[in-house]
Amino acid sequence: MYLTLEETAEYLDLTISEVYRLVREKQIRTVSDGEDLLVNKDQFNLYLKSLEKYKAELLDYLNEPLPEDSDIKDED
After folding, report:
1. Is pTM, for the whole model, over 0.85?
2. Residue 29 in contact with residue 40, Cβ under 8 Å?
3. Distance between CA atoms of 22 and 62, rounded to whole angstroms?
4. DSSP class of residue 14?
5. Where are the extended beta strands (E) located within 1-76?
6. Neighbour order of strands in the sheet with 37-40
7. What is the per-residue pLDDT across 28-76, written as a single tens digit (0 to 9) for each?
């Protein structure tokens, strides 16, 4: 399924200018139908899955309790 750049911006929850920037930087591949640039929606599925996995791993890391430091001595 192909999306226009406006639909891509909505799908990725980005502004249209950010999508144009990603296209210019060749971060998003496009095809032209003669009038519009179109983006294949399937190219984002793997990226979005890996992004969700990264977010989950980061949250797990941030929620992990700090280990007790053996070098700190209680001087009370």
Report:
1. no
2. yes
3. 30
4. -
5. 2-4, 31-32, 37-40
6. 2-4, 37-40, 31-32
7. 889 998 889 999 988 877 777 888 899 999 999 999 887 777 666 666 5
